[in-house]
């Protein structure tokens, strides 16, 4: 099939061909940004902020033509590499045929995409359902909140996890555990009850990962034992909470991967008390973990799936929800229940449809699991050699490296992580006679976790390069 072939260790082009832009006056652009751009949706991790001018495959390029291996791929939005030829061609075809149409009308791409997603879910989860589209991840979360509250008779209370992230719109921030996203604005409705996630490294000592997962479920189930715990009425057999919002693997929380028994046991509790399970797959979906949806690894059937990001490889905003038929059929969730002008835009649905076709034609499950295992083996070798690495873990190509103080390999070290980010963006790390930079993303409860979400089309040679670059970085800052 016609896909971009991953380029190993860069593409061999000259600095000028790779993106050297002598016409770019970085100082002037940064001056204009400081004066005229809102910083409300910008995180300036470095000073001055990094400015890129080109991208291809697994690499970003700055105005000087320096090459940066990207290990976060736009927060896992570009799962299939920058400038993926097949998906870029889909954008061009859509642009030349039907790039715009009002959402009150139908177009083929929306219908076929919804059918593919719904049929796949029915085959995997044994439940007929429907798909509703929107633009961004937070907007899809908002739609899911409407869907759940409507189905549950207006109940506005939700469970969510400590460390969970579901967006920063007013509704989504109420189920996101970080208070800083709500502090200035409050929120509509009620804040979620945040339940501990089985973060084994930071959990009680003396338990295996599976034992800690069971312990967390047992502590949650205890809340239903008496009406005086404040959420269950045994006389009416009603729970005050409508749904539990989960990330199967925590994203912003630091790519924390739970034990295999955890969600099976949790779902039994939710089913017993009539609480819906809403799975946020915005960051971990679309084969990041080696499955279309990360929840497939854990043997439970969701009531709602929220998706976005990589469904279009970051080429056009599109998100959506899949929900079981009884929650979303037109009699329950009728015309006009929610709306966005661009909700099922043909540019987004067109490239997403091509993404789904590509996934059907390619064994990403096998390749992602093999590449992820190779990458994790490299991280484990780094952990053996550097005391500042407290833990490494991964599922598919969602990997984590928790950075700690080398004195005990446990105390979280944001200090070292910040140094890693600064050094990585200098673009001066030498491997094999060439100089590289590295694009990293940081997460975790203590902002001390390097979260790795490389391109799923990354070659094994590029994985080896990534390990060498991380080795050089850790040698600089981690001792």
Write out key terms for the chains shown.
479 residues, alpha/beta, Aspartate Aminotransferase, domain 1, Aspartate Aminotransferase, domain 2, seven-stranded mixed β-sheet, 14 helices, 18 strands, disordered N terminus
The number of distinct β-strands equals 18
* Gap between N and C termini: 46 Å
The CATH architecture assignment of the largest domain turns out to be 3-Layer(aba) Sandwich
Q: Give the name of the CATH superfamily of the largest domain.
A: Type I PLP-dependent aspartate aminotransferase-like (Major domain)
Strand order of the largest sheet: 4-12-11-10-9-5-6
CATH class placement of the largest domain = Alpha Beta
Shape: globular
What fold name stands as the CATH topology of the largest domain? Aspartate Aminotransferase, domain 2
Radius of gyration: 23 Å
Structural class: alpha/beta
The overall pLDDT, averaged over residues, is 94
Which regions contain 5 or more consecutive residues with pLDDT less than 50?
Answer: 1-9
How many domains is the backbone divided into?
Answer: 2
